[in-house]
Amino acid sequence: MSQLKAWRAAIVHCIADPKDVGIDAAYEYFEDGLLVVKGDKIHALGDATQLIPTLPNDLAIEHHPDAIITPGFIDTHIHYPQTDMIGSYGEQLLTWLNTYTFPEESKFSDKAYARDVADRFLKELLRNGTTTALVFGTVHKVSVDAFFEASEVHNLRMICGKVMMDRNAPGYLTDTPESSYKESKELIDAWHNKGRLHYAITPRFAPTSSDEQLKLAGKLLSEYDDVYLHTHLSENKDECAWVQGLFPKSKNYLDVYDQHKLLSERSVFAHGIHLCDSEYHRLHETGSAISFCPTSNLFIGSGLFKLSKAEEHNVNVGLGTDVGGGTSFSMLQTMNEAYKVIQLQNENLSPIKSLYLSTLGGAKALRLEGKVGNLAVGTEADFVILDTRGTPLLESRLALSKNIEESLFVFMTIGDDRAIQATYSAGQCVHKR
Ligand code: GUN
Ligand code: ZN
């Protein structure tokens, strides 16, 4: 019996950033493609009619004439503990946090509760074709244990961390600089690089950490080669003014993190809406990345992310849902809202750039390129089968599509979880509709 498995369908993936090489050179498309997987890795990719004769006769081929295969989606910013508070009405960031978020997050001191939410959260990600995510836990250490234990079951490439938060939050949700350092370190030692899992040092945002806590976060970051730093940056105008008041010696919001040595090639900052040129420049210089979270930015009224500014300064950008500030687990729906955010600034977001941001661009932002993000031979077999007949409207609209770019755009405008026929992680099926 051959160890190989193969999927035959239309296949599309990005191989570069359209900003660097132009749209046409940024992707590969096989109208009648074959994706061959050996164990957990991609073994071959190409035109079905050319590849099949080179492969063993007993090769099992799953044929999907009505499907498009893409890489698994990468969500560069999401909060698993906010799964059950999605769609909380009527507030902007700071009131939203106090009214809805903090009370919900308090429940995660209970590990059984955390595990139940983590299981449902991961199921929701996989139903939506997301195979990798950079994930906030809560301040409770057990929330991260529960998340990693749940991720291990499906062998997912996931990044998570315990929130560090020692001020400006309810007492039931705060830690101390020392306890947050110690618990984060214990979690790194237990989980970082265990199988496909990675740890992110996770100060919530500047207002909820003292100087001392941010300093210890920077110390921890310097003690490991490859752990991540994950936080929020310049999301909301009131938040930015608050940060200026709390850290009067800082030149700007990013400088608070910079002064505490939190900028690195593995640092990911969610939102980055209200930034000045020197902040973009410093993000670029340090190899830090921004997670663009359009559904959240619209829902909590934060503002419009300036993708062209980030591009001009060569800052790495990925796409994030930011559930529960964000309103959908679907990266297709996140691309839909991203398009509109860019439209409102009189610019265009091409479907190939959107695909890039939610796959290879996300992988680059997370320094996981070469492992996940596209379907290159040797990378991990994380992929999605998109069903052109997922809904009656998708079927009728896609029947009129003239090319792959138009088809992708239709998927990312009217598609959602119903378009995801199956999701594979490391070669194994982890969701089938
Ligand atoms: N800033 C600090 N905490 C949060 C959070 O939980 N969600 C969002 N969107 N922004 C934040
Ligand atoms: Zn967030």
From TrEMBL:
<keyword id="KW-0378">Hydrolase</keyword>
<keyword id="KW-0479">Metal-binding</keyword>
<feature type="domain" description="Amidohydrolase-related">
    <location>
        <begin position="68"/>
        <end position="429"/>
    </location>
</feature>
<comment type="pathway">
    <text>Purine metabolism; guanine degradation; xanthine from guanine: step 1/1.</text>
</comment>
<dbReference type="InterPro" id="IPR014311">
    <property type="entry name" value="Guanine_deaminase"/>
</dbReference>
<dbReference type="GO" id="GO:0008270">
    <property type="term" value="F:zinc ion binding"/>
</dbReference>
<dbReference type="GO" id="GO:0005829">
    <property type="term" value="C:cytosol"/>
</dbReference>
<comment type="similarity">
    <text>Belongs to the metallo-dependent hydrolases superfamily. ATZ/TRZ family.</text>
</comment>
<dbReference type="InterPro" id="IPR006680">
    <property type="entry name" value="Amidohydro-rel"/>
</dbReference>
<dbReference type="Pfam" id="PF01979">
    <property type="entry name" value="Amidohydro_1"/>
</dbReference>
<dbReference type="InterPro" id="IPR032466">
    <property type="entry name" value="Metal_Hydrolase"/>
</dbReference>
<dbReference type="GO" id="GO:0006147">
    <property type="term" value="P:guanine catabolic process"/>
</dbReference>
<keyword id="KW-0862">Zinc</keyword>
<dbReference type="InterPro" id="IPR051607">
    <property type="entry name" value="Metallo-dep_hydrolases"/>
</dbReference>
<dbReference type="GO" id="GO:0008892">
    <property type="term" value="F:guanine deaminase activity"/>
</dbReference>
<protein>
    <recommendedName>
        <fullName>Guanine deaminase</fullName>
        <ecNumber>3.5.4.3</ecNumber>
    </recommendedName>
</protein>
<comment type="function">
    <text>Catalyzes the hydrolytic deamination of guanine, producing xanthine and ammonia.</text>
</comment>
<dbReference type="InterPro" id="IPR011059">
    <property type="entry name" value="Metal-dep_hydrolase_composite"/>
</dbReference>
